[in-house]
Amino acid sequence: MQEATILDPSHQSPAPASVPVQASIPPAPDSTHHSRSEGPSRWARMQQNLNLAGIGLFLHILGGNQQLALPHLSVTDITEVNWDRLKQAGFKGVVFDKDNTLTRPFQLQVEPKLLSAVERCRLAFGSAGMALLSNSAGLTQYDPQGHEATQLESSMGMAVIRHSEKKPSGGAVEVAAHFGCQPHELVMVGDRYLTDVVFGNRHGMLTIRPLPLELGSEPTGVVLARRVEEACVARWTSQGLLPAAHPLIPHSQLSDMITPPVQPPPSTSPPAV
Known about the structure:
With 273 residues, the chain is of the alpha/beta class. The protein is 30% helix and 8% strand. Strands 1-6-5-2-3-4 form a six-stranded parallel β-sheet, with helices on both faces. α4 (115-125) links the parallel β2 and β3.
């Protein structure tokens, strides 16, 4: 299991303000004319993998506030998150990424091994206290009619926030309006440093980064972006850089938000001769 990031008490940076992003993605031709049975168009799927605004923001981070790319907590997967303690700490909702966080890429079902963790989150926050914010389902450019979002809500029993801009660009207005609280009262859970972690940190959320569920099926552009993100984050971490402190959880309590995985009992069988 990866260790939780512990904040240094002397390192009390305020929650970062939103960073303006100039890059934008042009509208996809005919992307609004696919039927529900056809799913997203090829152009929409291609643009889903090309996040120009995210790339532009990450380049800004390289020479600026690198803390934005550092998650408060890193876990193997969401089964290690203690949802009850997060609720007790004052958080009011959990924002999940979809692909490679809860589901395998382009799938509409929660990964089976994560079902119990999703249910524990539901018990802690209630159905209204958890939602998906995806760069595919619910995104106007990729899912203009909301068909995939509706399918996902039906298959997962979780609301999908409709939004017009890809993470990490844009504001948190749609997210805050959905939950009816301030962004710093939310937890952002996602596997990408460039999109999920940066988006959450830009708006003062607590950020949790699980390892991706699957890498083999990702497009080449996403794979390359991951390598750059991970190399940058590893370098900054090795230099002693820490994520910004969060107002709801003191540095000394971050590790309490993680439940260590249950280790199998030691074998009592005699060694083979």
